[in-house]
Amino acid sequence: VQLQASGGGSVQAGGSLRLTCAVSRSKFSVKTVAWYRQAPGQERGLVASINEYFATNYADSVKGRFTISRDKAKRTVNLQMNSLKSEDTAVYYCHVRANWGKDEYEYWGQGTLVTVSS
Question: Would you place residue 8 in the very low, low, confident or very high pLDDT band (cuts 50, 70, 90)?
């Protein structure tokens, strides 16, 4: 599975950005797609996830501001980020959990930088 993340950039506080993770076709069955982020000097943490049944999960810090969505036909997962704050500044990573038979695999995409200026 290959992941291509895009959509990062610089924005002022209160603005919006949309991140997209494109998932390549493969023999694997994609179960959950998630966005993580890592700020300088901090550990990587979950931002939002969406599973094969479109159930979503959000970090408390982004609830009500970020929305994750999945287009199975296009094999993309979007993260709409509104009301951005300076503390949202981080490198954002796309992550996939996929199955092949009984085995579970996980994959990371390259990071995309989001910078929010106050």
Answer: very high
